Amino acid sequence: MIYSIVRKKDENGQDVDLEIKFNVGDLRRVLELGYSDDDPNIIPERLCKGLWCRMGFTGHLNGKIIKTMFSKPYKFMIYCVVHTLSHRNGAYDETSDYIMNIITCLVLNRTYNVSQVIFNYLVENMGAGSGKYIMYPRFIQMLIDDLVKDIPKDDDVLGLRNMIADTLSRLSKGLEPRVRRMICKIDNPSYVAPENDAWRHDSSNSENEDDKINEMVEKKLRYWLVKDGKRKRTPKTSPVVPILKVVPPNIVVKV
Prior knowledge:
Blueprint: E1 2-9, E2 15-22, H1 24-31, E3 43-44, H2 45-54, H3 72-85, H4 97-108, H5 114-126, H6 137-147, H7 165-169, H8 184-187, H9 210-213, E4 224-225
Parallel strand pairs: 3-4
Antiparallel strand pairs: 1-2
C-alpha cells in the first residue's frame, strides 16, 4: 500500500491536505490492464531470448539487448513499450528483463502481471533519492484523479504527434537488420501461446534459432527464472573485496 497527501482548495479557498492510499489492485483497475494477482511476473529467460531471436535479434544473447538490433517494425514496438513502462529516466536503447518479459507475453499472447511490476518500482523509486520517486507521472495522475474527483486542472495540454516514416527512420543507427515478418499474436489476433514455455509451435514454419539460443548463458536478473523454474536471486550488495593499500617508498636523496 502507498500512502500520500494531496493538497487542494476547499470551498473557502483554503489549502487542505487529503490523505490518499492505493495498492496494486487500484493501479490495475485504473489503468485497465486486465490482469490478476495470479498471473506471473517472472518468466524464463530462455523463453524471452528464444522469442527475441525469432523476432530477428542480431546481437549477442549474452550482451545487452539493444532495440537497434531489430528491424524497424519490432524496433518501434520495443520503443513504445520502453518509453511507456520503463521505470528509468534514461538508457532507453537497452531493454531490461521485465521489459523483455512484457514484449514476450504481448507477442505470444501470454498473461503477465504488468501492474505488479509497475507497483514494485513505484514503491522502490520512493526510496531511491531525489528525482526518482515519481517515474510514472501519468499513472500517478490517473490514480489521484480516481481518488480525488474535483482536483482543478490548468490549461496545459500535452501535444502528441503520430509516428511517421520520417520520425521512425530516426530509430535506425547504422546498417538496418533484415526485416522479419510479423509473428504470433501480432500476425494473428487469435493466436494461442505454445505450452511448456516454448516460443514456437511445432508446426511453425519460421526460421529455427536453436543454434543461437544454445550460446546463451543465464543471467541473475530479478524477473527471470532459472532452468529448474526457481526464481533467480541477485545479491543485495556485492561481496566486499579487500584492496591492499600501496605505500610509496620513502626515497631520500642525498646531495
